[in-house]
Amino acid sequence: MKKAGIFFADGFEEVEALTVVDLLRRAGIEALCVSVANKTEAVGSHGIKVAMDTAIDELDFDSLDVIVCPGGMPGTKNLEKCDKLTEKIKEFNAGGKLIAAICAAPMIFGHLGLLKDKKACIYPDMESELIGANVVYDKVAKADNIITSRGMGTAIPFGLEIIATLIGKSAADDLAKKIVYAD
Questions:
Q1: Which of 87, 110, 113, 174 has CB atoms 3.0–4.6 Å from 130's, for a disulfide?
Q2: What is the strand order of the sheet 98-102 is part of?
Q3: pTM of the predicted model, to two decimals?
Q4: CA quadruple 33, 35, 38, 42: dihedral positive or negative?
Q5: Could you tell me the residue ranges of all domains in the chain?
Q6: pLDDT tens column, 13-42
Q7: 103 labelled catalytic
Q8: Catalytic residue among 33, 69, 82, 103, which?
């Protein structure tokens, strides 16, 4: 079974984070809610509390197939302040392992220098944060092992792209039909 770590920091965007967790679990991918603050819950940018499955210091990163960073403010900035997470993002990227970020969170990849000459997207008016990227305005952009997306309204196609990459396009297409996202 494929395994995903969805990383939560206080101030995360609830729809972006939980849509991905939900879609991955429906597709049979183990999706762990991981606290970067090593707490038992995280509080979203709209006050919604979410129980965590594990803490970053307890996580076996080698067991993960993807690191997922939801957006939201100040959640994105709080993720970026987590040295362990940013180090693991760089390691995953260097090893060609999948990394994914939505809304404001692709700025983390830009700031780490991971987007040079790669197609990427981000929340509107934050494009300057995608340092070195070939900025696109698609709902989702995939460049090699990096998936980026633009915001809450693109959370479903973002989650489906992660599924397509991990277990195949037919699995993503089947799920899109089951959730009445596609015909």
A1: 110
A2: 54-55, 30-35, 3-8, 66-69, 98-102, 146-149, 140-143
A3: 0.97
A4: negative
A5: 3-178
A6: 999 999 999 999 999 999 999 999 999 999
A7: yes
A8: 103
